[in-house]
Fold these 2 entries.
Entry 1:
Amino acid sequence: MKTLQQMLRELARPEVGEFAVASDRLPCVKMGDQYQPIDDVARSTDAILDMLVAAGGSRYVEDLETKPAAWTTRVDGLGPVEVTAVMRGGRVQARFTLTNRSQGRQVPQTAAPPAPYSEPAMEANTSDPMLRGALVRPAPPPAPQPPPRVGTSSRLDELLYAARQAEASDLHLVAGRPTLLRIAGDLVPRGAPIDEATVDKMLEAVVPERLRSTLAEQGSCDFALDRPPLGRFRANVSRQRTGLKGCFRCIPPVVPTLASLGLPLEIERATHHHQGLVLVTGPTGHGKTSTLAAIVDIINRESTHHVITVEDPVEYVHPRKRAMIS
């Protein structure tokens, strides 16, 4: 029996429009107008509800019988995935669609935009052989706006904006090479090579004054870069053979939750210990910082503790909730 992650991987195929699953039916993918099974084991209602929780829908599952739900989750290697779900008479139906792919679809000028969920729409849509009473997909998000011009380093701002739009985890700037975006774990070159003088000028402009001596003496420095409205980035600037090199990690604008990261909710138990040591370990880029941020957010949301984080640079900035965070 395939796991949820294995079935979601089917969305990476260009011919697949969506992944759909319904109670006591075989999981399917939609190719053109046809649904094709991708597993030989039907899923029960409880199994599908567990899928939805794992896909970040824990806060919707309890009310799913009375209120259909739609949300977006992030899947490693795929990016944002739209999830839509409905439950009727103890039977649940769910669809998973790549957000970027749905943004690329064009709505005819004469057609009304897709309506939000409504009872008549769900009951009327019975042409789908896979999901009777299927969900009406919400309207796609607005088209991206032109890159903002921020501060005095507009060239770097445009590159950071492009990294956000491409759902990249990192932006790398190296003298003599094109811009490199890390997308789904792979370095993807964009544009023409950038000369040493241009890279040096862009990076020197953003290195904080307090770290210039560190860069000169040690050849490397780390700092946080906050570029409204582009967001927050963890930056490393170092010197290598061809000149300066910069790496910018894109920090999501919202503190993640365990559900949005696809992590088991049992991890929350770590916040209930009164003494001891909890270690979060793993290779670079595998989610340690995001996991810790989600745990701190639980404490911030549910307790009145004083939380002290020791980090350089500060990455996620936690909003004021019940706790105090230093």
Note: Residues 4-124 form a domain with the Beta-Lactamase fold (CATH 3.30.450.90).
Entry 2:
Amino acid sequence: MDALRSLQTGEGIERRYVIENADRSVGARLSGAIAMEFGASAPPGFARMIFTGEAGQSFGAFLTGGVEFVLVGEANDYVGKGMGGGRIVVRPPINDAGDPHLLGNTILYGATGGELFCAGRAGERFAVRNSGASSVVEGVGEHAAEYMTGGTIIVLGDVGHNLGAGMTGGEVFVYDRGIGVPAMVNPELVDVHRLGSDHPLLMEQGVRLRELIERHAAYTGSAVAQAILDDWHAALHRFWRVAPRADVARIENQREGTVAVRG
């Protein structure tokens, strides 16, 4: 609650903490206090909290606007659970050996807004029931985007099986490193297609995709993201977009209309 007064008065504040696995639901009290005073609106001030260590379950749960949590280390399950705003940034420590696994399972469960950028991999059931948060992560396990109804997820690495099961909204972009993304997708409600087309809507998606990856690189210092940006034209053709069939059909119908007009 160190930040509450600054948030109320319109000031900016930055605090640093060491965090341990026993520290759970860090940020929930602060977000609750902000919601009690400002409702769904962001507070006039801004708080940036920098944590070093290993966070326990539900780090950044119910995070709200005006707050940024930066974790240098790793976190357990349920990071960003129910978050409605704000930003979570997770990056590995300087002495990390590479290809870090930084987040546990069920990240962004039930999130309605906000952003999460992680310069490492996450476990299973990433973004389950997400309805509005945006995120960039560098690998996820099985059942990602399960029952997702909104938001944008970008995976700059491998995904597990059953991607998009029960997904009825939002979109997932996956950078294909050769695993064959279509084989990982649950086809019951979603379709998957390549980006890089000259279709206007697909080009628009590419612009939005690049903007989020640029933000990811800026916030996390990710070498993976920077390598993709450095060779963007080639990288764009390696992305797949996973979205509900109705959304994919809308794009295809508009593509056909554009082709007919040109013809």
Note: The first strand starts at residue 12 and ends at 19.
